[in-house]
Amino acid sequence: QVQLVESGGGLVQAGGSLRLSCVASGRTFSSYGMGWFRQTPGKEREFVAAITWSGSSTYYADSVKGRSTISRDIAKNTVYLQMNSLKPEDTAVYYCAAGRPYTDEAGINGFRATYWGQGTQVTVSS
């Protein structure tokens, strides 16, 4: 069992930056890949970024590629999402997840989540 708690969300102006954190508890944290998703009202949860259990590989959605960086600190049981050059369309609830990242046959990155956090709100004003 893995429990996930996100933090770091808030209100920021367009062009600004935020760093989201997700602290995991559970003995098997280091064996899971970690991912970030986001969701806005009325829309499906959208994959944002992921990192393998070793931290050696990262995956990004096209919508955030070049603007965001995912990283993990296994010693602190924490995964981070650094988001720069934020846009109003980045406004959403951001969720942390534990599971496994993948790239499908079309080259699209994704993540199969096993555990979810409760989410943290990110609001980008124009």
Please give a structural write-up:
The chain is mainly β and 126 residues long. It has no helices and eleven strands. Strands 2, 4, 5, 6, 9, 10 and 11 form a seven-stranded mixed β-sheet that branches. A hairpin with a 4-residue loop joins strand 7 (68-73) and strand 8.
Q: In summary, what is this structure?
A:
With 126 residues, the chain is mainly beta.
Structural topology:
Elements: E1 3-7, E2 10-13, E3 18-25, E4 33-39, E5 46-51, E6 58-60, E7 68-73, E8 78-83, E9 92-103, E10 109-116, E11 120-125
Parallel strand pairs: 2-11
Antiparallel strand pairs: 1-3, 3-8, 4-5, 4-9, 5-6, 7-8, 9-10, 9-11
Instruction: Give the topology string: H per helix, E per strand.
Output: EEEEEEEEEEE
Proportion of β residues?
over 45%
User: Which range best describes the helical content: under 10%, 10-25%, 25-40%, 40-55%, 55-70% or over 70%?
Assistant: under 10%
What spatial form do the alpha-carbon principal axes imply?
globular
Number of helices: 0
Class from helix and strand fractions: mainly beta
**Which parts are unreliable, with pLDDT below 50 for 5 consecutive residues or more?**
none
Main β-sheet description = 7 strands, mixed
Radius of gyration: 14 Å
Summarize model confidence as the mean pLDDT: 94
Features of this protein?
56% strand; 0% helix; 126 residues; 4-stranded antiparallel sheet; mainly beta
